[in-house]
Amino acid sequence: xxxxxxxxxxxxxxxxxxxxxxxxxxxxxxxxxxxxxxxxxxxxxxxxxxxxxxxxxxxxxxxxxxxxxxxxxxxxxxxxxxxxxxxxxxxxxxxxxxxxxxxxxxxxxxxxxxxxxxxxxxxxxxxxxxxxxxxxxxxxxxxxxxxxxxxxxxxxxxxxxxxxxxxxxxxxxxxxxxxxxxxxxxxxxxxxxxxxxxxxxxxxxxxxxxxxxxxxxxxxxxxxxxxxxxxxxxxxxxxxxxxxxxxxxxxxxxxxxxxxxxxxxxxxxxxxxxxxxxxxxxxxxxxxxxxxxxxxxxxxxxxxxxxxxxxxxxxxxxxxxxxxxxxxxxxxxxxxxxxxxxxxxxxxxxxxxxxxxxxxxxxxxxxxxxxxxxxxxxxxxxxxxxxxx
Length: 389
Description:
The protein is an alpha/beta fold. It has 15 helices and nine strands. α13 links the parallel β6 (301-308) and β7.
């Protein structure tokens, strides 16, 4: 079967309708978010060489831009690095004629590959050009769900820390953001004054807000140092009190924490922080909860997950069976990473059949790289496709 890759896609062939169907009108997909996105760019003179032998290519116009079509095909074939190099060349650093769809492909490929630094270097350009908030950073790489506590880099702090150590703390924050987590050994810290505690607490709060894992290790000696500087009934050095409470949480010393919390409440006449596990203890607890509680399933929604390849035809057969007794078919693609070329062609054929039966199929939360391939394959003409954010 010859599939048009460029230009306006012709509507897929449909069988003749029965008289009652012609009167009522067969269902057709509403305008799709994917079709409305602007992928336009100058032709970079690239062909779809990697698709050779799979389908016949018919060139009919400018379409979404040859460079972006090729990037979608490269990614579909598992050539992630080549796709990334192509998109980085085709999407300009500032301004330019490239549309939003191409930008979303690049940003999503960064997320799919776990390239946080590259992602953060581009999001400001995206926000400036399109005057809207960029997609948030989310690590969508295959290893993102694995525990990172043992892989986090170890940073050593030493000496006496004051507010002047803010630059040092910011360097630690940069390491944590780059690596997705950090372990801080405080065994060689001889003391922290109250302004230093304030800076340190602010750093920990920022990383907690960003859900970046932080573990303070060997905290006992520093807790003893700070413990000698606080006195019940003397409302001074509030940040030192609060830093000490945090250290006890990282140490897992709940009994001492609760005693100190009572003293804090009496001294400052305000509620103390609540007990909360920190660092490795908290990560272990969250992992246990995720393992014990599988994600709920929606019986009225089909899901694509992982990678759909030519060997995954069973998934598409289950989709056809799922759609048999439904007029509206909702497919959740939030956990779908990739669709290869052969599987996309099979999906197109199934969707053509479902559309001819008067069924409306929606593919929701599709990543932009898969969406680019679906547009190349005309899937957006037979299903309603929306992107994930």
